[in-house]
Amino acid sequence: MRSIVCHAARDLRIENSTVSDPGEGQLRVRVAFGGICGSDLHYYQHGGFGTVRIRQAMALGHEVSGVVERLGAGVSGWQPGQRIAISPSRPCGHCRVCQAGQHNHCLHMRFFGSAMPFPHIQGAFSEQIIIESHQAHPIADHLSLSEAALAEPLSVGLHAIARAGSVLGQQVLVTGCGPIGSLLIAALRRAGAGRIVAADIAELPLQCARAMGADETIDLSQEGDRMAPYKLDKGQFDTVFEASGSEAALQLGLDVIRPRGVLITVGMGGDIRLPMTQLVAKEVDLRGTFRFHPEFATAVRFLNEGLVDGRPVITRIVPFENALSAFDLAADKRQSLKVQIAFADA
Ligand code: ZN
């Protein structure tokens, strides 16, 4: 079988590899679809992000769906042929942080396709992978395996909402309407947000944001003055989700958020300046959000029950043979939102 392996910046290869038999409590899965995420692109384009660098060959990928192929010892409740969404989150369950219920911060996390620990944790862009049975979530018959691979980015959006607390009836701003921002918008609708304004600097993500349920979209590259009314009276938004990672968007968020509003930083843009005067004087709650854990099951349920339709987010599906070109396509934000790779037997 073959895997998509990153050796260094701009050095991505399709390589032959082997897959073992599933061990106790594990499943062997034939991967169906894999979505290319921003972090995969960072590894491919720059060899990493921030202090996280690729130091050994690592298969990329963590947004995958597949079909159960073989059961390890002691696994029950699964059948070969079952279609699943696969959570990339593998916390240890035993450390102090896991015991406190904060599994996404596990001290021994083995999240698929991550160069944070060393040795790195291999990713899921392989034709076959071994997973823990608790990573598998069955999908509904009517849900495509392609849509099932959106459970991961949807989980990121759900965890961001969990960090914000109740958004019921609120006026909410989302800056950055790529796949995460757009799926977040759909999740905000489910969570009862009263009015959702979406902002970006390009038309394609804004189209997607509308399809996913935004009430108003603003192209900041053309019509930034439409934000002016939202700055009045110390700001109008109860909650702001900053999903672009840009300094300008964070500044805008602080301009338009109401006093004591909650500003969730979903995007990770490296070191940027923080306007402390506004943050302090408006008593803004600035909160980070990182990955997810229990939200994955909720994301699969929303997709299974048709409560979130992720299809507008997927702009292209590329066959495995052309997987390397799929990364360049995914990096072109003018024409791509979510690019997925279709593995051999998908
Ligand atoms: Zn742990």
The total count of helices amounts to 11
Helix content: 25-40%
Q: Give me the strand/helix succession.
A: EEEHEEEEEHEEHHEHEHEHEHEHEHEHE
Q: What is the annotated CATH architecture of the largest domain? A: Alpha-Beta Complex
Task: Report the sheet with the most strands, covering strand number, pairing sense and barrel closure.
Answer: 7 strands, mixed
**Uncertain parts:** none
Q: Could you tell me the number of beta strands?
A: 18
Topology:
Blueprint: E1 2-8, E2 11-16, E3 26-35, H1 38-46, E4 48-49, E5 52-53, E6 58-59, E7 63-71, E8 83-86, H2 96-99, E9 128-132, E10 136-138, H3 145-148, H4 151-164, E11 171-175, H5 179-190, E12 195-200, H6 203-211, E13 216-219, H7 228-231, E14 237-242, H8 247-256, E15 257-265, H9 276-281, E16 285-288, H10 295-304, E17 314-319, H11 323-331, E18 338-342
Parallel strand pairs: 11-12, 11-14, 12-13, 14-15, 15-16, 17-18
Antiparallel strand pairs: 1-2, 1-6, 3-7, 3-9, 3-18, 4-5, 7-8, 8-10
Helix pairs in contact: 4-5, 4-10
The chain binds zinc ion.
Salient structural properties:
346 residues; alpha/beta; Quinone Oxidoreductase, Chain A, domain 1; Rossmann fold; six-stranded parallel beta sheet; 11 helices; 26% helix; 27% strand
Account of the 3D structure:
It contains 11 helices and 18 strands. Helix content is 26%, strand content 27%. The strands form 4 sheets. Strands 3, 7, 8, 9, 10, 17 and 18 form a 7-stranded mixed beta sheet that branches. A 6-stranded parallel beta sheet has the order 13-12-11-14-15-16, with helices on both faces. The chain has a 3-stranded antiparallel beta sheet with strand order 2-1-6, covered by helices on one side. The chain folds into 2 domains: 2-150 and 310-342, Quinone Oxidoreductase, Chain A, domain 1 (Alpha-Beta Complex); 156-288, Rossmann fold (3-Layer(aba) Sandwich). The relative contact order is 0.16. The model has no long low-confidence stretch (mean pLDDT 96). The protein has helices spanning 38-46, 96-99, 145-148, 151-164, 179-190, 203-211, 228-231, 247-256, 276-281, 295-304, 323-331; strands at residues 2-8, 11-16, 26-35, 48-49, 52-53, 58-59, 63-71, 83-86, 128-132, 136-138, 171-175, 195-200, 216-219, 237-242, 257-265, 285-288, 314-319, 338-342.
